[in-house]
């Protein structure tokens, strides 16, 4: 079986790479996902899965406490789900991946067209190559190799091709609410082939610090919102320290700041010679696997309410939560899925797997927490290339991940030997 | 003579107020000064002065070390100069004022149209009323009252109606280079009837602090330009303290920070979950009367070169000087012009004058330093209303200032009694 899979993958590599290139050319920033989802649906049909294509929506979905998106109308932005029913008696698995990609950014930074899908030097180039059309291909190839080599699995395999991961996971939430869950899940986000049983969650915050305007020549008549924002920034740094000091999970042993508070943006004042009366800080707070989003919100808000500054005690900074959020996720290191992936990784690569905690959120938090589908994140591609110019993925890693995932599915779902002939 | 002047002013108040209203309706933001300058030229002709209307230009002007403007082509933006030649043997005086006004800003903040020129409750409303069309009217009325009541002055009176004060004084610089200087000058900027023999200069700076980008989830891989900008801000506050500690001029006795460093604007980063790699700070540094602009530039640049931070020692912030600048100005408290204004103030208002140092720059710095024309700033109107919405000026103060200025001119220029009959 193992040899058959390996041989099947080797034979179908070139076709698969050409198809990946096609899915990158089919650009799929938010709102443009339809084209690539058609390609995915066609491929799932070709493999032989039951395919459901639908646009997320409905009251339960929009009003769900974990719903987070910049829109509520997903017309033209379908999810695609493929189901391969098992023969029964086995454990089911979800293979989840998103097709939405972040914008290309400044075109001047790119050597090629960002949507070239160029194939050279063993790599496929373009926005989404690493995050995560390459990883999705690993999952599809894994299923294809199992199905086409005649394997009969006991457990179901459910493939999620979702929208909206980059803005908070509405696509995966919808798939969960539609009942497309399983006993466990693999998400081939770009972990650089590391295994992430634990994923950091995160939320975005906006803090508005108020001062009092005055002419710069008599600045003592005003209160500088820039100076006051420094008090808030310092308090955020202290809060970060306090939050991280209490993290003991050994998976974070080598991580300098397991759940960082990143202050990403600052804007304040509008004239060099006026005292600035408003500063707005925007940032991202990491959420530890054992924390709820609510706990973290309360802790940050409390820190802004208790600033050690006479002005800010009266004029308390306003805290808003906006934009994206990702639930944290955690599955035990000794969970059977983790163990299976580790074993198969060693077999295929002849090296020991690296087990770590992810420094970013994925849809794994939703699958684990909202979908009762414990998720492990493991895939080809390098985080450092995601969201950057000249994004690419190594073809060899896609194929390696495909083989590891295929063998993991075999072990996890179980093979019905009687019908396997 | 004094009674005649007082009576003349009272008689001509209504006409003058109507004219002021007209000059406010004739909006004169940068580039739009032509219309109001025509009104001024006509009034100077009516009073009986020799009028020169010309557009500033020429190599000497554009390349002058004190030239500071956002443009080098002043087509359509004339200066207007009126000269009243004395009979000889007296001291000459410049009455300088600018016609350019700052933009109205957000129209929603205004109760009326910003260029209404509305007259009600003893006030004239609109952009430029206080800064400084009202003060200019005081000067014009002073000259008109002297001339029309038949007074023969020994010294020359030179009236400057200049452009570009709000962006660094190019209009006044041009008038100086054209030779329109005198033994002293009065500038009726809105001092709220205080006498400012000393004026703070100022310059605008821009400081760019660099960090290193990274994903917010692994922010320890980057260097936050926001955190590093706080080091720069703190150093600016320390520099401000050091600079002000050495100021001993008793005119600054009641000023908490004689020459402030105002940090007016901060912008940095572009994504909540990325480590910001650039922060730009814009501000204004006050220049003390005894300082040169060059000295102050060097001191601030040195402070940014010597920051106590390992990263910033290598990645030194870049300092740029941009936008407007105003030279400081100083004339002795016991200068004869100051003494004359003080005496005439007491006479007209029956109260003691307040002598202070101005918290902002005017064209007085240029007149004093580049034009050898020591300038005192004294005028109606309140600084707090300049550059703000619902700007207005009190008519009674315009008339009071006109009388004080007329009597000051009498004393300063001297009266030729023989020809005065």
User: Can you tell me the number of structural domains of chain A?
Assistant: 2
Strand portion of chain A, in percent? 15-25%
Helix content of chain A: 25-40%
Main sheet record of chain A: 6 strands, mixed
Total number of β-strand segments of chain A?
16
Radius of gyration of chain A: 23 Å
Q: What is the topology, as strand order, of the major beta sheet of chain A?
A: 1-2-6-3-7-15
Shape of chain A: elongated
- The number of helical runs of chain A is 11
Pfam family, one (chains A, B): M20_dimer
InterPro entries (chains A, B): ArgE/DapE (IPR010182), Bact_exopeptidase_dim_dom (IPR036264), Peptidase_M20 (IPR002933), Peptidase_M20_dimer (IPR011650), Peptidase_M20A (IPR050072)
Keywords (chains A, B): Cobalt, Hydrolase, Metal-binding, Zinc
Family (chains A, B): Belongs to the peptidase M20A family.
Short description:
The structure is a homodimer of 421-residue chains. By secondary structure, chain A is an alpha/beta fold. In chain A, 35% of the residues lie in helices and 20% in strands.
Q: How would you sum up this structure, described in words?
A:
The structure is a homodimer of 421-residue chains. Chain A is α/β, with parallel strands linked by helices and 421 residues long. The first copy, chain A, folds into two domains: 2-199 and 328-420, Zn peptidases (Aminopeptidase, 3-Layer(aba) Sandwich), CATH 3.40.630; 202-326, Alpha-Beta Plaits. Chain A has helices spanning 2-25, 34-47, 59-62, 129-148, 170-177, 225-245, 293-305, 310-314, 336-349, 364-369, 395-413, and strands spanning 50-54, 79-84, 93-98, 119-120, 123-125, 157-162, 184-187, 195-199, 201-210, 261-268, 278-287, 318-326, 329-330, 355-358, 375-377, 392-394. In chain A, the strands form four sheets. A six-stranded mixed beta sheet of chain A has the order 1-2-6-3-7-15, sandwiched between helices. A four-stranded antiparallel beta sheet of chain A has the order 10-11-9-12, covered by helices on one side. Chain A has a three-stranded antiparallel beta sheet with strand order 4-5-16. In chain A, a hairpin with a 2-residue loop joins strand 4 (119-120) and strand 5 (123-125). In chain A, helix 9 packs across helix 11 (395-413). The model of chain A has no long low-confidence stretch (mean pLDDT 95). Chains A and B meet through strand 9, helix 6, strand 10 and strand 11 of A and strand 9, helix 7, strand 10 and strand 11 of B. Chains A, B: This is Peptidase. Chains A, B: Belongs to the peptidase M20A family. Chains A, B: Keywords: Cobalt, Hydrolase, Metal-binding, Zinc. Chains A, B: Its cofactor is Zn(2+); Co(2+).
């Amino acid at each position: 079986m193992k040899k058959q899979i390996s041989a099947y993958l080797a034979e179908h590599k070139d076709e698969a790479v050409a198809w990946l290139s096609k899915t990158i050319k089919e650009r799929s920033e938010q709102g443009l996902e339809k084209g690539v989802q058609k390609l995915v649906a066609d491929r799932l049909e070709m493999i032989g899965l039951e395919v459901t294509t639908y646009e997320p929506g409905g009251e339960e979905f929009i009003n769900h406490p974990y719903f987070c998106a910049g829109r509520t109308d997903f017309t033209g932005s379908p999810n695609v789900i493929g189901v391969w029913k098992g023969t029964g008696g086995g454990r089911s698995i979800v293979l989840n991946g998103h097709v939405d990609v972040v914008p290309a950014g400044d075109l001047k930074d790119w050597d090629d067209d960002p949507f070239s899908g160029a194939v050279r030097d063993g790599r496929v180039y373009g926005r989404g190559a690493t995050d995560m059309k390459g990883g999705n291909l690993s999952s599809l190839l894994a299923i294809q190799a199992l199905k086409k080599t005649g394997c009969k699995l006991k457990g179901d395999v459910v493939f999620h091709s979702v929208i909206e991961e980059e803005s908070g996971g509405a696509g995966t939430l919808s798939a969960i609410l539609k009942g497309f869950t399983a006993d466990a899940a693999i998400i081939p986000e770009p972990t650089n082939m590391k295994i992430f049983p634990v994923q950091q969650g995160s939320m975005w915050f906006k803090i508005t610090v108020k001062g009092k305007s005055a002419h710069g020549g008599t600045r003592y008549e005003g209160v500088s919102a820039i100076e006051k924002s420094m008090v808030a920034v310092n308090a955020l740094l202290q809060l970060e320290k306090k939050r991280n000091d209490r993290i003991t999970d050994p998976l974070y042993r080598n991580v300098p700041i397991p759940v960082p508070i990143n202050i990403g943006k600052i804007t304040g004042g509008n004239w060099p010679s006026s005292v600035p009366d408003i500063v707005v800080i925007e940032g991202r707070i990491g959420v530890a696997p054992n924390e709820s989003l609510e706990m973290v919100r309360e802790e940050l808000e409390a820190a802004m309410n208790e600033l050690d500054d006479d002005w800010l005690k009266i004029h308390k900074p306003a805290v808003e939560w906006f934009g994206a959020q990702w639930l944290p996720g955690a599955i035990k290191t000794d969970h059977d899925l983790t163990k299976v992936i580790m074993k198969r990784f060693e077999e295929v690569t002849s090296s020991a797997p690296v087990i770590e905690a992810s420094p970013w959120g994925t849809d794994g938090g939703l699958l684990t927490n909202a979908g009762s589908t414990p998720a492990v994140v493991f895939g080809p591609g390098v985080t450092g290339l995601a969201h950057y110019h000249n994004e690419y993925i190594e073809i060899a890693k896609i194929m390696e991940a495909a083989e590891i995932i295929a063998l993991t599915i075999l072990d996890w779902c179980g093979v019905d030997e009687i019908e396997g002939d």
